[in-house]
UniProtKB/TrEMBL annotation:
Any one Gene Ontology molecular-function term assigned to this protein's record: aminoacylase activity
Protein name: Peptidase M20 dimerisation domain-containing protein
Natural source organism: Smittium megazygosporum
SUPFAM superfamilies xref list: Zn-dependent exopeptidases
Similarity comment: Belongs to the peptidase M20A family.
Record InterPro entries: Aminoacylase-1_M20A, Peptidase_M20
Length: 210
């Protein structure tokens, strides 16, 4: 098995933070992300529209700040694994927050809640910018990384408040990338998942059935 690289170690540390509903540990997550921003050299801002549910904004200023910016968004929360009921061993080969690194031929796999949805994407954003900075590259547009809470339960206390805030308006966003699925192969797929929500309320009267 290949030795663990610093980027993999950082990813595993992120996965081990239990931002799992119904009581996600957002404070530990915020401190982790703050440390990453400081290491990379990014501007860091944490705002709370609902107490205990931080929205994190990291920024890499561009050479032409008048241009509309680019936002790379990800969410920090993950869905439950029902550890409280001691049933996770039925569905997991390894503890879901151990971020176990398991040999797979000459390579390895990492088992953890959030390894796909979607801490892997947030980690990829951070590592890409880390490499960009290390190479001495600069962008004409300002780049913002946003990490939002509560996406898995609707985003009401996170993104819903954020996009209506002055904090969001100040980002001068022209383009945003959101949730996608990481591919284990070398291919890169471009797709869209949703364009805008459309909520419909139905009222049915009469006897219930199935």
């Amino acid at each position: 098995m290949r030795p663990e690289t610093p980027s993999v170690a950082r990813f595993r540390e992120y996965l081990q933070i239990q931002t799992v509903h119904p009581k996600p540990d957002y404070e530990t997550c915020r401190e982790y992300l703050k440390h990453q921003a400081e290491e990379i050299g990014l501007e860091f801002k944490s705002v709370e529209y609902v107490a205990g549910k931080p929205v994190i904004i990291m920024s890499l200023p561009g050479t032409n700040p008048e241009l509309p910016s680019i936002i790379l968004n990800s969410h920090t929360d993950v869905v439950p694994v029902f550890e409280c009921c001691s049933i996770w061993p039925e569905f997991w080969d390894y503890p879901p927050f151990s971020a176990e690194r398991v040999p797979d031929g000459d390579d390895f796999k990492i088992y953890a809640r959030g390894s796909q949805d979607m801490k892997v994407v947030g980690s990829c954003y951070l590592e890409a910018i880390r490499n960009l900075k290390a190479a001495g590259k600069s962008l004409s547009r300002t780049l913002h990384l946003t990490f939002v809470p509560d996406e898995e339960i609707g985003g009401i206390d996170g993104m819903a408040y954020f996009v209506k805030s002055q904090d969001f308006k100040d980002l001068n966003a022209g383009f945003a990338l959101d949730e996608g699925i990481a591919n284990v192969g070398p291919e890169l797929y471009a797709f869209y998942g949703e364009r805008s929500p459309n909520n419909v309320k139905f009222t049915a009267r009469g006897e219930t059935g199935h």
